[in-house]
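HUMAN: Would you supply a protein with fold tokens?

ASSISTANT:
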Amino acid sequence: MEKNKVAEMFNSIAPGYDFLNRLLSMGIDRIWRRKLRKMLDVSNPVVILDVATGTGDLAIECVQNGKKKTRKITGIDISEKMLEKGREKIRKKNLADCIELRYGDSENLDFEPDTFDAVVVGFGVRNFENPEKGLLEMHRVTKPAGKVFILDFSLPRNPFIRTLYGFYFFRILPFIGKTVSGNNHAYGYLPESVNHFPQYEQMTNLMSKVGFENTEYKPLAFGIATIYSGEVS
């Protein structure tokens, strides 16, 4: 989808975005972010970029615990309304000294090469107009030996689970999302975007194509979501 349409869509659902995330995922999205943060903790990066940060949930998770508050995280997004919600949450949690949210285009990152120890993305890459270009930009701004972690929805490979999940994801979820948010398109777009998003080996192959090494994927909750990772040499 074109960037301006993505921004317009997320601006329209920003007021109820966090509530609907918790409702539609039954809170599991928090567990997934925690798993990503634990993978991130292994190399203990200090300067981190959160691409397509939305309302800042992943950035907040990455600095929530103990010594992790020494981290400096910059979150970027093309939706100003989502950023406003995120800044409000960050102020309430007294994290403004270590998290900065700013407007930014994921496919044209306004940072010098080799700026960040790590780059993270939570449920954002499938919304890129050009995923390959976005991955190239993430590679460019990551320091040598730095890592990138991408969390996003995927479709389970097990036929039985895929059928059950598909019924919820393609039928129930859009109806609830539309009813609660009042947006007829946004929560129909979600399953559509997942359906067309590179997954599993397709995604790691794309990451390898743009220069990432040691690419891996880790399915979560039977493959409902997946964490992809890669290193910069």
Q: What stands out?
A: The mean pLDDT is 91. Strands lie at 47-51, 72-77, 99-103, 116-122, 142-153, 213-220, 225-231.
